[in-house]
Specification:
Blueprint: H1 10-18, E1 22-27, H2 50-53, H3 64-79, E2 83-88, H4 98-105, E3 114-121, H5 128-136, E4 142-150, H6 154-159, H7 166-177, E5 182-189, H8 196-209, E6 213-218, E7 221-222, H9 226-232, H10 241-254, E8 260-263, E9 273-275, H11 282-295
The structure holds iron/sulfur cluster.
Iron/sulfur cluster is lined by residues 33, 35-36, 44-45, 48, 50, 91-92, 122, 148.
Length: 306
């Protein structure tokens, strides 16, 4: 992280690492999720609707090749990107037999200018064989595994119906670290019944684990989810913008300056969103976080962890 920065932004990392503009192409590779297909549960996480999370899940299924091709063309035209990372985003992208995983990951090899692969998954959906396969791509690409953790507190994980524990995440991190794979943890701020202290415990734990990247999201209510039912019955109240900004600012204080912050707010199409509406104004959220860090004279990694 450069001295003039308040936190280590992903696009800065990519520029330093690859020397040019790099665009992340998100795809839906047609995987499922054990928390939705009945292996663990049919209900899914209480906030989950992949159509709200991922553009490619909102349109009719397209071959992986076309998604990558279109994503590259978009990134070049809109952002002047020269290199690309393919992000296997929708659902659980390690939840299939090894030969299927290999077949779908191998599609990236058909394209030039791809410098990285990022694979989103659950911490209970990896093992030595899957990690060995993923690691095999690190000879040619920078490889990231993005684990949905959300919180280190098992009582919260149970409440949001994650069907995995913190221990599953810890084990996945240990196994992954033995390989040339970078780890990004996904965290949600504002989960039901979590106090600020509990949220900051998650930050402190990630700091100790020396994770390579973090994605931080404010919990938002998507139409048709269990969380919407909680909200309608007054069992859940989303964070106000200033509450989110205050917590995220403190959260960053605990995260080591070498950890890349891949995301610090959420994206949700208006037609899917119930609340809080402030997430629709992404730039305002980002500006307020910068302002708060400035006001509090703090930055990523400033707070000592014990
Ligand atoms: S693990 Fe991911 S895809 Fe599966 S239900 Fe939860 S949020 Fe949805």
């Amino acid at each position: 992280m450069k001295n003039d920065q308040k936190y280590y932004k992903f696009f800065e990392y990519l520029k330093e690492r690859f020397g040019c503009r790099v665009y992340k192409v998100s795809i839906d590779a047609g995987f499922s999720c054990p928390n939705k297909d009945g292996k663990l549960s049919k209900d899914g996480c209480i906030y989950c609707d992949n159509k709200a999370f991922s553009l490619n899940s909102r349109i009719p299924a397209q071959p992986i090749e076309s998604q990558i091709e279109n994503g590259i063309a978009f990134g070049r035209q809109r952002y002047g990107a020269e290199k690309f990372i393919v992000y296997f985003q929708a659902y659980t992208n390690t939840f299939a037999p090894l030969n299927i995983l290999k077949e779908r990951y191998d599609v990236v090899r058909k394209f030039q200018d791809i410098v990285g692969i990022s694979i989103g998954t659950r911490p209970d959906c990896v093992n030595e064989e899957i990690l060995d396969l993923i690691n095999s791509y690190s000879k040619d690409y920078e490889v990231w595994l993005e684990y949905g953790l959300q919180s280190i507190h098992d009582k919260t994980l149970k409440l949001i119906n994650r069907h995995h524990t913190y221990k599953d995440f810890f084990k996945a991190v240990e196994l992954t670290k033995k390989r040339n794979i970078k780890i990004c943890a996904h965290i949600i701020i504002g989960l039901p019944n979590e106090t600020k202290e509990e949220i900051l415990e998650t930050a402190k734990t990630l700091a100790k684990l020396k994770i390579d990247g973090v994605k931080i999201h404010p919990l938002h209510i998507v139409k048709g989810t269990k969380l919407e039912e909680f909200y309608n019955k007054d069992k859940y109240k989303p964070l106000e913008l200033d509450e989110y900004v205050n917590i995220v600012t403190e959260f960053l204080g605990y995260i080591p300056p070498t950890t890349v912050i891949q995301r610090i707010t959420a994206d949700c199409p208006k037609e899917f969103l119930v609340a809080p509406l402030w997430i629709l104004n992404k730039n305002a959220v980002l500006n307020l976080i910068e302002k708060k860090l400035e006001e509090n004279n703090t930055y990523q990694g400033k707070t000592e962890t014990t």
